[in-house]
Design a protein that fits this description.
The complex is a heterodimer of chains A (266) and B (324). Chain A has helices at residues 56-63, 95-102, 120-132, 136-149, 165-177, 195-210, 222-228, 246-251, 256-265; strands spanning 18-27, 30-40, 45-49, 71-76, 79-80, 83-86, 89-92, 105-108, 183-187, 214-218, 231-236, 239-244. By secondary structure, chain A is an alpha/beta fold. Chain A has a 6-stranded mixed β-sheet, with helices on both faces. In chain A, helix 3 (120-132) packs across helix 4 (136-149) and helix 4 packs across helix 5. The longest helix of chain A is centred in the last third of the chain and has 16 residues, at 195-210. The radius of gyration of chain A is 18 Å and the shape is globular. With 324 residues, chain B is mainly α. Helix content of chain B is 66%, strand content 3%. Chain B has a two-stranded antiparallel sheet with strand order 1-2. In chain B, helix 3 runs antiparallel to helix 10 and helix 11 packs antiparallel against helix 12. The radius of gyration of chain B is 28 Å and the shape is flat. The chains are: A alpha/beta (266), B mainly alpha (324). The A-B interface holds A 64, 66, 95-96, 99-103, 105-107, 109, 111, 113-118, 126-127, 130-131, 155, 158-164, 166-167, 172, 175-176, 179, 196-197, 199-200, 203 and B 1, 3, 183, 185-186, 188-197, 199, 203-204, 207-208, 284-288, 314-318, 320-321.
């Protein structure tokens, strides 16, 4: 595999890219996030691990407002997610304003969610053309470059149903990158893949990390977290149980719950 | 990466073989029975003088029948356009988070689906009796412009309103079902890319919903073609009314009903073929290869081979998956 000559994190200064303070989220009476505090620095690969139902995916979806939070503060690049503060009151943003902020946040889903009625290339060019008003020719050119980058330039005209899971997920990453995001969210990007296809997706993600993309990755791939991650958080029951450097947390967990979880997945 | 070199050819494998296909003697016996029954039916149809086939032949291309045919086609096309456009608008309204919009759509569907289309047709035709003049102006205030209702809504317009508005209510439910059949992940992915609700609906959700919407819409169109015969009650001379007009003069009721029926049957057959190809178009991307068209299937049959099987081309990404 590629060596990990990641630049030391000296560029990580100033405002955090994502900042969560006491973030709460409940569905009816069930509270799934019970006060999350964390900070993601620019250029950082931030891994979220934990058992299913721990709230890690929900938290990720809160970051681009696919879910509304019920309490606490959550901001991306210094701006609140989904709300505007005036004085000491919070105002909900309009759909249009929310959409404007989502442009800068790429998201990759567990089940790819490619648009099945469009070819791989059309999947990638759709948002730049529709949302940013790029010319079709320019979008296509960049789309081809992105496909090349994820190693799929020969699949531009294929529909998602004609691609393997790993190829679909790589197209989905290219689709998110086409909007030139400043932050990428990965929601268990390899969990729906056959084991032999996991590697090709992780390779693409590793390349992104090396280029300095800020990434938040919900994952069960402990190897990836150890190798590529700059920070790691273990969540359970809607709270952050333990956080720190991935290599330290994964080899020498301090909490009993972290230890119990890792003993099952490692 | 080593995921791609599993699908290599295996030298030294036995060649492909030919197996004796399963015989179906029952099918042959069945075919004989059906052929005899069909011959009996044909005989009864052709040699019963009461059908008066010569009269059918005379009127099949009669100018008033052909004119009625034109009106029927026009009415079908226009009321389906109204129905589909109205149905999409109503369905999107119905699914809107805005309670005013969804409530309005609910009320519309409730009224127009809850009353017979025949009654609605007659109602539109008698609008003039309810409101002799229609006007534009300030509500409860002065009028700027007004016109007699009967001039504004001639009988063709009344027919169109009756059929189209009623159809919109039915189409709304079909479109709503289609929209709801699209995986929620699609909307999420679209929103996550920063696409607006409107763009998501138009570019992502509706095209996928089409696959579910098209087949019942084809049925609705075929049904509409025949429902247009109802407008004969408001004296619009479409196909059925044209036939009626002739047999009320000549009393050749049966042959004219056959004439008219032959035309309806011909048109529904054409529509059925059109429906097949439209469905095929909207299935792209959801199946790996499109099924063969009837023509391709027929050609395959004459070549003595089964229709081209779906898997041999395409799916280039899946060689590693191992074919049987």
């Amino acid at each position: 595999m590629t060596d990990l000559s990641k630049a030391p994190q000296d560029a990580v200064l100033g405002e955090p890219m994502v900042k969560a303070e006491g973030v709460r989220k409940s569905y009816g009476l069930v509270e799934v996030l019970k006060g999350i505090d964390l900070e993601v620095k620019p250029r950082e690969v931030f891994c979220l691990i934990g058992p299913s139902g721990s709230g890690k995916s929900t938290f990720l979806r809160c970051i681009n407002h696919l879910e509304k939070i019920n309490g606490g503060l959550l901001s991306v690049d210094g701006e609140l997610v989904g709300y505007r503060r005036k004085g000491d009151k919070l105002y909900e943003l309009r759909d249009r304003e929310v959409a404007l902020k989502r442009r800068d946040i790429g998201m990759v889903f567990q089940r790819f969610n490619l648009f099945p009625h469009m070819t791989a290339l059309e999947n990638i060019t759709e948002a730049p053309v529709q949302v940013k008003g790029e010319s079709k020719a320019a979008a296509r050119e960049r789309g081809m470059a992105l496909l090349e980058r994820v190693g799929l330039s020969d699949k531009a005209k294929n529909y998602p149903s004609q691609l393997s899971g790993g190829q679909q997920q790589r197209v989905a990453i290219a689709r998110a990158l086409a909007m030139k995001p400043k932050l990428m969210l990965f929601d268990e990007p390899t969990s729906a893949l056959d084991p032999e296809l996991v590697g090709e997706v992780l390779d693409v993600m590793r390349g992104l990390a090396e280029e300095g993309m800020t990434m938040i990755v919900v994952t069960h791939e402990m190897g990836f977290a150890r190798e590529v991650g700059d920070a790691l958080v273990f969540m359970d029951g809607g709270v952050v149980v333990e956080s720190g450097n991935p290599r330290e947390v994964l080899t020498d967990p301090q909490h009993e719950r972290t230890r119990a979880f890792l003993s099952k997945v490692l | 990466m080593n995921h791609s070199d599993q699908g290599k050819a295996h030298p030294g494998r036995p060649e492909t073989f030919k197996a004796v296909p399963v015989r179906h003697p029952g099918r042959w016996a069945g075919a004989v029975v059906v052929a005899v029954l069909a011959a009996m039916l044909l005989h009864a149809l052709i040699f019963n003088p009461a059908f008066q086939w010569d009269v059918v032949n005379t009127y099949l291309f009669d100018s008033s029948i052909l004119h009625g045919l034109g009106v029927t086609l026009e009415l079908t096309a226009l009321s389906m356009i109204m129905g589909v456009a109205g149905g999409i608008i109503l369905a999107v309204m119905r699914l809107s988070p805005n309670p005013l919009l969804s409530g309005t759509a609910w009320f519309y569907i409730w009224v127009f689906r809850g009353t017979p289309v025949l009654v609605q047709l007659v109602f539109w035709n008698f609008m003039g009796a309810l409101w002799p003049r229609l006007s534009i102006g300030i509500p409860f205030g002065p009028e700027f412009w007004s016109e007699s209702t009967n001039t504004l809504i001639p009988v063709f317009t009344a027919a169109l309103l009756g059929l189209g508005l009623n159809e919109a209510a039915y189409m709304a439910e079909i479109v709503r079902g289609g929209i709801q059949s699209v995986d929620e992940g699609q909307t999420e992915a679209s929103h996550a890319l920063g696409m607006s609700r409107f763009a998501t609906m138009r570019r992502i959700v509706l095209p996928q919903a089409m696959r579910v919407i098209i087949p019942p819409t084809g049925n609705e169109t075929i049904s509409m073609l025949k429902t247009t015969s109802l407008v004969s009650v408001i004296a619009l001379e479409e196909l059925f009314r044209a036939g009626q007009n002739i047999y009320s003069r000549t009393f050749q009721t049966i042959p004219l009903l056959i004439t008219v029926s032959l035309w309806y049957l011909f048109l529904t057959s054409v529509l059925t073929i059109g429906q097949y190809y439209v469905e095929r178009y909207y299935a792209r991307g959801t199946t790996r290869t499109l099924p063969p068209t009837p023509l391709q299937r027929l050609r395959g049959l004459f070549r003595g081979k089964p229709a081209p099987k779906a898997d041999h081309d395409v799916v280039p990404g899946l060689e590693g998956g191992g074919h049987a």
